[in-house]
Amino acid sequence: MKDQIFDGDFFKQLENISLNVRMLMKEGAAGGRKSKAKGSSVEFSDFREYTMGDDFRRIDWNAYGRFDKLFVKIFMEEREAFVNIFIDSSKSMDYGELKKSTQALKISAILSYLSLNNYDRVCINNIQDSSFRNSTTFMGRNMFNSCINYLKEIKFEGNTNIGESIKKKSFYAGGVAIIISDFFTKGNLEEIVKYLIFKKQQVILIHILSNEELNPELQGQIRLIDSETQESKNIFITSQLLNKYKNHLKEFSNNIKEFSKKLGADYIFVSSNDEIEKVVFENLIKLDVIR
């Protein structure tokens, strides 16, 4: 996956941008974000033992000489953000000639890279049914390959209830919650966003639909089969029915966009056919999700 996403030029462009975290960090160890703690970014606060991925520039070599262990300095204002990426891994995401699932994994990889590059902590949560499976917490640039390996193992099957799954997750105050889904899910999505905001999360919704869903080329008598429940229905497709479908789909997307804006969440719409460069340098930057 890394080779598919990052050619040399694209990789260099990512070096100079990061996830735009607007929440002020209250918790967490040394990192690249500003916290609500008093003091300046050069005001020393404490030591902690070095962990893989920490910035070498923070190592206190005097402490190493005394204790024969590596310690890093923690400053009053600097904290890492805790970024939770929730991936809808239901069967409906595995749809389209250019699959929604592939686009979701690519976007997850890029957002993970940008976060790790800024010394934020990243946890990937793949949601299925009413539960989720989560990765270990990744931190530091050298953990990106581990992140990619976890993404490669995600299987898209079954159905999903995003709300019930997310309520089982513990959150750090002042973190970032990113949900990547087609949002064909059980439960009330608006209530999910309200819950995350109550948990003091900056919420980012990334809505992915396939070209076949946006511009269906169907006509005549067909049998539709739900990919998640296997329920089927025989219908006769007419141009009037297609227009009605498109209007409902537009209303569905606009509703998510409207309540996201009202609640202060970010909403990004993406087609599975969109080039990943467009997703990053137009969709995400334009909406100030990354900068």
From TrEMBL:
InterPro entries: DUF58, vWFA_dom_sf. It comes from the Bacteria. Pfam families: DUF58 (PF01882). Residues 46-247 form the DUF58 domain. This is DUF58 domain-containing protein. It comes from Clostridium grantii DSM 8605.
